[in-house]
Amino acid sequence: MEMMDALWMSPCGGISLPSSAAGVGEDEAAAAAELRRGPWTAEEDALLAGYVAAHGEGRWNELALAAGLRRTGKSCRLRWLNYLRPGVRRGGFTPREQLLILDLHSRWGNRWSKIAAQLPGRTDNEVKNYWRTRVQKHAKQLGCDVGSGRFHDAMRNLWMPRLLERIHADESAAAASPAHAPSSQPAYQNAAAPIISNCARATSPEAASCVTGSPSSWEASPAAQFQTSSPTMAACWSTGQCQNGYSSASSGDMFEESWSELLARANHDDADSAGLPDFGLGETGNNWWSLDDILQQPLY
DNA sequence: AAGGAATACAACCGCCGCGCC
DNA sequence: GGGCGCGGCGGTTGTATTCCT
Known about the structure:
It contains 16 helices and no strands. The chain is mainly alpha-helical and 300 residues long. Among the domains are: 42-84, Arc Repressor Mutant, subunit A, CATH 1.10.10; 91-173. Helix 6 runs antiparallel to helix 9 (149-176). The longest helix is centred in the middle third of the chain and has 28 residues, at 149-176. Residues 1-29, 180-260 and 269-300 have low confidence and may be disordered. The protein binds a DNA duplex (21 and 21 nucleotides) through helix 1, helix 5, helix 7 and helix 8. It comes from Panicum miliaceum.
């Protein structure tokens, strides 16, 4: 097995590819010995994309050699899947995508590829990076671990409800503005519907349970999506109650203010019996911050 | 303006599982 | 049944960019 890994991606100067592979000659093997590493150049991208377009995916080691790429097959595969593959979406995650990531992570843990499969155009690497940068950053701000009850409560009671507010606010704004008619919506908004609908259509029961309703009904009425699981949240969608105290920033991150500030404010509100759930340590079961769970929480 | 720190993203690494021979 | 070739996954590292002092 380790030998296989050496073939897949041994560092510069150490590779010894089997000469039988795709008729690899000694010259080619020697060339392969000087494998490139680091960022891909535009020329390499063009080579890889062109070769895959002509011959299809798979057999990455042979592909790398045949295309004249001084890269490991594994590197070629990764570059193709994460960057060059048609349909790969780049840029910040939409609130819906963020919400879905949080929800699915609560169900599946660090199953990045499984989570990414529910986000059309997104890669496991992107989802993983999002988690490690944004989510873990917030945990750090709170001075706790992402696996702690304190952080899970913050996610469930602060982040996810606010993502729902954000989604609602965005859609309200889009509906109110002729410039945001469906045909002229930004790409990220058009992409949001498949994210939810894909989740709803997912073959696995776990994925299918994350959001109820059809894709079309989601687009037509977000409130309807929560009707069956939470009258409270449905009412929120309908009345705009969720927007209380929320500023619809365009940042990719929901929180312009720090988590510590949010938490302090939230706890203060709670002390005033404003309805914010207790932010002390506590559990909500295995499904820490799932939509199913937060939809049962009172809004604040 | 410059340098260091923090952040975000791309790429690499090691391991595992599956199918084929 | 065991080895091989390959694809996939999750964790980690490297680096470019942005932010802050």
